[in-house]
Enoyl reductase (ER) domain-containing protein (Adineta steineri), 728 residues
Amino acid sequence: MTSKQTTANTTSPIGIAAKGYAVDSASTPFKLFNFERRMPAADDVVIRIHYCGICHTDIHQVYNEWHMSKYPMVPGHEITGVVEQVGSSVKHFRAGDHAGVGCMVDSCRKCHICKKDTEQNCADSCLTYNSTELDKVTPTYGGYSNLIIVKEHFVCKIPKNLPLDAAAPLLCAGITTYSPLRRYKVDKHTQLGIVGLGGLGHIGVKLGAAMGAHVTVISTSESKRDDAMKLGAKAFLVSKDDEQMKTAANSLDLIIDTVSAPHDVAPLLNLLKFEGVYCAVGAPTKPLEIGAFTLLMKRPTITGSLIGGMKETQEMLDFCGKHNITCDIEKIEATPETIKTAYDRTVKADVKYRFVLDILNAFK
Amino acid sequence: MTSKQTTANTTSPIGIAAKGYAVDSASTPFKLFNFERRMPAADDVVIRIHYCGICHTDIHQVYNEWHMSKYPMVPGHEITGVVEQVGSSVKHFRAGDHAGVGCMVDSCRKCHICKKDTEQNCADSCLTYNSTELDKVTPTYGGYSNLIIVKEHFVCKIPKNLPLDAAAPLLCAGITTYSPLRRYKVDKHTQLGIVGLGGLGHIGVKLGAAMGAHVTVISTSESKRDDAMKLGAKAFLVSKDDEQMKTAANSLDLIIDTVSAPHDVAPLLNLLKFEGVYCAVGAPTKPLEIGAFTLLMKRPTITGSLIGGMKETQEMLDFCGKHNITCDIEKIEATPETIKTAYDRTVKADVKYRFVLDILNAFK
């Protein structure tokens, strides 16, 4: 295709050749995978992928830890790149734009949840990988690949002042923490707690600080104190230090808990002020245990949040553009071997704070 | 004292003779107990107790099931009676008024929690029994007694059209369910679920229906269906019937869970709409187990509620007066033996829906 604009052709069996890295099962290594992307429809944006972040979700899915994996799987939902062409009805993008794709590529767009701009919670939302298109048949393949074709509604603009590599994790880690910060109206009056200083936590600290909040990082490890402060935190609590935790009781308005490993939330809830909010953005496999007396005496709001809607994701990127916020990353070459090493290190929390794959160079 | 008004005399060691039923330990029976109430201060209301409801909390405390019991204990915090005299600065009560006292008799009234009219959550709130006055020394004795002296701020007016016996449980069971219904703005658009059809649940159904909500009762037992409907429910779910529970998934805006026995809340949360509210008003001793995926996918508000503030309690009583709502009760003679029998039956949930002790006749 030479034209920069295509016409609608959603039913064509002929696709566009694409290549990526896929796994065929939970126990086999990544390999080069040749596949077809759909022919772009009128509302589609074709994006040449430059970078893709490695989210912990990728690891859970590749290893089938959530028991819902479909293979072959091309992971990756922290995607940035450059628009290569757009369909005839696409309004807000043109070739050359910096674009991002996050965790979803479609939703029903008709239900009350979609109409509230929370497409991520739509029962029919189509995830970027390990999922299907709305037809419930066509598999979706993610961002460890050279090219992606996505409906305009699910594509975001990346502000030009943000580097595409360090911006990539904003599409998942960024929006995941931004959404509850906005939902609970964080501002300069907010005493904000961020639990865990990993991929999600580190960007949560930056975003919370940029919104003016007094940010306290709560971590199991004293060793993260200096980094927390450099990222913008004003206070640091070691969650295993009962004395510190007791002194800070009833001090926080909002806690964003980014930890995905099973952990005791009771000491965290104790940090909340009366009617404070605890919001989980991680997904521990063990249920959270919440004491009834805590609910009665503190009447907190205990809730969770899953990424964010498309409108909110764009708002987050614009906010990051304005405040010049990106993620702290380790950019790496993208090969089956480097991905494996990055997975191993991510599992050990040995990364500050996100690996980002150099996709463009891998598939040149 | 013959005057209907007294002057301030908070330091007098001389009290007013009172009598009630007390237990001396978790394993000894109720006995007649002679004690002194304080001399009324300028802001005190002296109430001749006519009726006192038996709340499940009384049973937990008498048997020291919450490991915080102090003896001798005169239980009872669902108190109605008639004002006998008032202190010189009392503005809103006079002799002859119908008055009610609930679960608390004082609080600091200075903290931000008190200033929000949520005195029940004040760290220094003084409970009606098994607690102390603000001095942290003087024990409080509850409503299984002939007389109580309470600061005006903690006394409510009972609308004259409500019978004092059936109104008594409004002071605890009524406000406990009313408060979250108001907090979450229940009206004719609300799909409301009430879990458990006991003392709390039955009045919750009446209040919710009077606010216009579509009320669904969720119970372990099909046998309660007819009663639920008679009380004002429009639908009924047997929580053990997976099929029924599945059909009703994502249908409720607000769930008030009145069950104090440990139970699985996951099937209840499944009934909530996206962003629905689950509010515990019972206090199971085992923590609630909340799955992280439920938090992320449904982003509910999980919270709890403890009775209500004084302003809200008066509002509830006025609402009940306007809608002619009282509790369904079994009124019984008040003797150590009848109390024991009532406790045994309450533990077996063999009461529709609240025992109320005839205190006036017991201490004539």
Remarks:
- Chain B has twelve helices and 19 strands.
- The mean pLDDT of chain B is 95.
- Chain B has two domains: 5-172+327-362, 174-304.
